[in-house]
């Protein structure tokens, strides 16, 4: 193939300026979340300066320390693109607004900073709805800036008008419709503060075109006016002491760890708490990497496709200590049968989550890092007083489960390439320092199961919304945020075809992501459900990427300015991955042609109890009553 030339991949002269970017050595677990520091201005205070509303917007972004935004210009937002031309803020021109939103999310997840995306009014803004909803479900701090038709035209069904504020009201932490140019600095500062503090989330700022064009003055910093917004960071001491008392007396406790622990930068204190108490740990899909997979106390991921030990550890526990988790239906299974004998301690920075799905005995509102730090102190006091839980029998039971029902897979009977093998080798070759970004479906679950996550910030995925098309643009954003880190997107042939156009962005912008395309020729997870629950009636799940090789993913990769590789047998897996690892100046796509019949196991079928977990097709774990 013809490789992209350095000239093709070079950044444009407009972007050849000094922009501070986090390096691969930066700790992604120490963002200024949960405190007012998240909105600290990045420049010195400035006196009034005559500018347009658009100029005020761009200067506000600079003052907030924004180094990169992802977006596409259009009529209503166009005034903002003129001052952006001369700005220190790097603008990455994506090929679809959905790509801009997911890239902002990937950037935020990889760096802990606020991601920023920009779109014009109407269809540009509505194309951001999916990534905004995705960020809302996974509590990711992004700010979406949209253009709007001029104020006199609002409500008239003007060309490219959409009520994006109303549309996104249920899926944003907050949103603004800017009314005057004078308020732009304050609104931007408030938007970033809201996105990054407390429970992080997306904030939308909608700015009419005439406001962007209006004359105003810019000064910094503005005064924030957010009455009533005061997230509780420090937990109540009485609740902490009660939780410590329960932890010191439980016989079958479990630490149920969610994504909030990562967002609070609490991985290190979590490790100390776990080792201090000896309590087993389960980490949800959104929390992988918060606790080392290789640690002896880690039971794995709970939930629909979790390990047998993790699922039954929760199910048969007498105490669940939930830290930054929300008792999602994919974890609990049939809710009224979930962990029937467990006392529940639930710690979360969002009080609305506590007791929302499961009755809670000890509610703790607070930032996960503060909660865990104070739990460590309280448990230490309990232990000094001679109160320490005896977990020997519990660990004996759990170790027996781990030994009898380890994660594994069968090689395909027809000799085709095993997708689990591909993903396992990818994790072993790329190693625990790499960032892995998954799409949604079977490949997502295999990536969560067969790659070992030892560090926070190394696993990005769409957990709550389950957004197909997330992986490629999110990987792009992650690589922009951490350019010195290897970034692999593990994607499926269905997901990939939704947003692969962003590889053109990566090629032209010099963003060398790597894509492991798990090509089974089908919408794999849907096909698995059709196999198990619809008697093998495969209605509209075959994609044609096997039978007809449409598209030919290698040719498509090359057309998008990437290096395209293909692997179809196990003997070539290692050398193909190593070849991709050696390419550092262009995006790489590997078309791994795998068998269509592989399934994700274990599995708890939707709507059933965790007691009904299946280890493999037709194989249900057996338990002695004494074990339970």
Write the layout of secondary structure elements.
Layout: H1 6-9, E1 46-52, H2 53-63, E2 68-71, H3 78-84, E3 90-93, H4 97-111, E4 115-119, H5 123-126, H6 129-137, E5 142-148, H7 164-168, E6 174-177, H8 184-196, E7 203-208, H9 209-213, E8 215-220, H10 237-249, E9 253-257, H11 259-263, H12 267-277, E10 281-283, E11 298-300, H13 308-315, E12 319-323, H14 329-332, E13 343-348, E14 362-365, H15 368-384, H16 392-404, H17 419-430, E15 435-438, H18 442-450, E16 459-460, H19 471-481, E17 487-492, H20 493-499, H21 502-509, E18 514-519, H22 524-533, H23 553-559, E19 563-567, H24 573-582, E20 588-593
Parallel strand pairs: 2-3, 2-4, 4-5, 5-7, 6-7, 9-10, 9-12, 10-11, 12-13, 13-14, 15-16, 15-17, 17-18, 18-20, 19-20
Antiparallel strand pairs: 1-8
Helix pairs in contact: 2-3, 2-8, 4-6, 4-19, 10-15, 12-15, 17-18, 17-24
Identify the notable features of this structure and list them briefly:
alpha/beta, six-stranded parallel sheet, disordered N terminus
Distance between the termini: 59 Å
> Which of globular, elongated, flat, extended, rod-shaped describes the shape?
globular
Low-pLDDT residue intervals, each spanning 5 or more residues: 1-41
Strand order of the largest sheet: 3-2-4-5-7-6
The biggest beta sheet reads: 6 strands, parallel
The tally of beta strands, per DSSP, is 20
Radius of gyration (CA) equals: 25 Å
Mean of all residue-level pLDDT scores: 92
**Approximately how much beta-strand content do the residues carry?**
15-25%
The level of helicity is 25-40%
- The total of helices stands at 24
Structural class: alpha/beta
């Amino acid at each position: 193939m013809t490789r992209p030339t350095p000239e093709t991949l070079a950044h444009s002269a407009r972007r050849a300026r000094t922009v501070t970017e986090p390096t691969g050595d930066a700790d992604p677990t120490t963002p200024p979340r949960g405190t007012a520091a998240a909105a600290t201005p990045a420049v010195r205070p400035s006196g009034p300066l005559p500018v347009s509303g658009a100029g005020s917007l761009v200067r506000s972004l600079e003052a907030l320390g924004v180094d990169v935004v992802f977006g596409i210009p259009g009529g209503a937002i166009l005034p903002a693109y003129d001052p952006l031309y001369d700005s220190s803020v790097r603008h990455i021109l994506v090929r679809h607004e959905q790509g801009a939103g997911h890239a902002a999310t990937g950037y935020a997840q990889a760096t802990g900073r606020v991601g920023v995306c920009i779109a014009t009014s109407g269809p540009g803004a509505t194309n951001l709805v999916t990534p905004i909803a995705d960020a809302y479900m996974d509590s990711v701090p992004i700010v979406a800036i949209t253009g709007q038709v001029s104020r006199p035209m609002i409500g008239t069904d003007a060309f490219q008008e959409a009520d994006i504020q109303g549309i996104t009201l249920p899926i944003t932490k907050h949103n603004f419709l800017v009314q005057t140019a004078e308020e732009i600095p304050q609104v931007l500062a408030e938007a970033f503060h809201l996105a990054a503090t407390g429970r992080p989330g997306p904030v939308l700022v909608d700015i009419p075109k005439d406001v962007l064009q209006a004359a105003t003055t810019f000064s910094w910093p503005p005064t924030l006016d957010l009455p009533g917004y005061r997230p509780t960071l420090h937990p109540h001491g009485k609740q902490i002491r009660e939780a410590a008392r329960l932890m010191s007396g439980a016989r079958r406790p479990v630490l149920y760890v969610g994504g909030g622990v990562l967002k609070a930068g609490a991985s290190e204190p979590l490790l100390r708490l776990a080792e201090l108490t000896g309590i087993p740990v389960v980490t949800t899909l959104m929390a992988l990497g918060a606790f080392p997979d290789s640690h002896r106390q880690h039971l794995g991921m709970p939930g629909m496709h979790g390990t047998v030990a993790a699922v039954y550890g929760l199910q048969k526990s007498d105490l669940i200590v939930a830290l930054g988790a929300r008792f999602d239906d994919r974890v609990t299974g049939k809710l009224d049968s979930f962990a029937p004998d467990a006392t529940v301690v639930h710690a979360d920075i969002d009080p609305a989550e506590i007791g929302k799905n499961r009755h809670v005995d000890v509610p703790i509102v607070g930032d996960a890092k503060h909660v865990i730090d104070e739990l460590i102190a309280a448990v230490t006091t309990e232990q000094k007083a001679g109160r320490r839980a005896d977990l020997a029998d519990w660990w004996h039971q759990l170790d027996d489960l781990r030994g009898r029902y380890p994660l594994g897979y069968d090689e395909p009977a027809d000799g085709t390439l095993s997708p689990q093998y591909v993903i396992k080798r990818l994790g072993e070759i790329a190693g625990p320092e790499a960032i892995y970004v998954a799409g949604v479906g079977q490949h997502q679950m295999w990536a969560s199961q067969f790659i070992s996550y030892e560090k926070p910030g190394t696993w990005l995925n769409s957990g709550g919304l389950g957004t197909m098309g997330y992986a490629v643009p999110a990987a792009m954003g992650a690589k922009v945020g951490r350019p010195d880190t290897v970034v692999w997107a593990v994607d499926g042939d269905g997901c990939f075809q939704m947003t692969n156009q962003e590889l053109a962005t990566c090629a032209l912008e010099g963003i060398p992501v790597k894509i492991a395309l798990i090509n089974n020729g089908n919408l794999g997870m849907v096909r698995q459900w059709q196999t198990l629950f619809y008697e093998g009636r495969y209605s509209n799940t075959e994609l044609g990427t096997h039978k007809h090789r449409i598209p030919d993913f290698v040719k498509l990769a090359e057309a998008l300015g990437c290096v395209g590789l293909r692997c179809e047998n196990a003997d070539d897996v290692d050398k193909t991955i190593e070849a991709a690892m050696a390419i550092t100046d262009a995006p790489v796509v590997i078309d791994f042609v795998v068998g269509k019949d592989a399934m994700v196991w274990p599995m708890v079928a939707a709507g059933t109890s965790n007691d009904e977990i299946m280890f493999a097709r037709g194989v249900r774990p057996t338990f002695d009553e004494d074990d339970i």
